[in-house]
Design a protein that fits this description.
Strand order of the largest sheet: 3-9-2-1-12-16-17-15
Shape: globular
Number of strands: 17
Strand content: 25-35%
Helix content: 25-40%
Radius of gyration: 20 Å
Distance between the termini: 24 Å
Number of helices: 9
Length: 311
Amino acid sequence: MSKKHVVVSLGHDALGYTTLEQRDAVRKTALALADLVEADCQLTITHSNGPQVSMIHKAMTELRRVYIDYTPAPMCVCSAMSQGYVGYDLQNALRSELLSRGISKSVCTILTQVTVDPYDEAFYEPTKVIGRYMSHEDAETEIKKGNYVREFPGKGYRRVIAAPKPIDIVELESIRTLAMADQVVIACGGGGIPVIEQKHVLRGASAVIEKDAIAGRLAAQLQSDQLIILTGVEQVCENYGTETQKPIPAMTVAQAQKLMAQGQFEPGTMLPKIEAAITYLSANPQGEVLITSMDALKDALKGKNGTKITL
């Protein structure tokens, strides 16, 4: 019997928000991931990086403020740093957990670049908030550099950057090769490092990519059997956060699209996950998507929790 190929997308809860939180969180995350490996699944793992890349960006910016000779790190470099640092903690925690169960298996992180369109509309209307709160004077300096900022009344200003749609995963064949060799692969962290292709050169873009968007594309291009999206809620719900909230244990793509048209899924939280599910299932009609929380995963895999989406 061939192994089940699964792409797992980890949300913020799986990683925490600080270096110490992450160190502890990945140990718990490793338990759930090891259960999947023990169930004879081949895993390709992707993850969020919002708090991590924001922390790195703030640190590099402040370093430049204190030491004038230092060059501020561009967003693409901050993204690469976050991929490496999250992957380091995650791969070591999972390797340790697997070895404790008598499973000797390689776990590796691939620094992954993802191409984006330089003319993507997102570059003209940035929405992703990044970095520290700034004074009006600092905000003016950022604007003069060509960056976008947004005012938060009573708090100050923060930089906002674009979130363009992913096009191609540059290291896809390396990821595929390792996956086919039954290795555990951590890739496309934080949506991948956004790059713009200019002839034969890849140049970093001042942007971030939605990790849900890349999870759907990665699962589609790997033709995985299942996409598991782990988030902060046990199930997708209709009328979420209201008195008439109703869990959705299962739905088809057509049903999901109908609910999307009704505005049932909040942009920035559940909507990108549903869009990722549709991207994946449109390319792989035989696959299935499971959306649930880390704590509910074990029951969700038995059909006792979570939301399953099929074509």
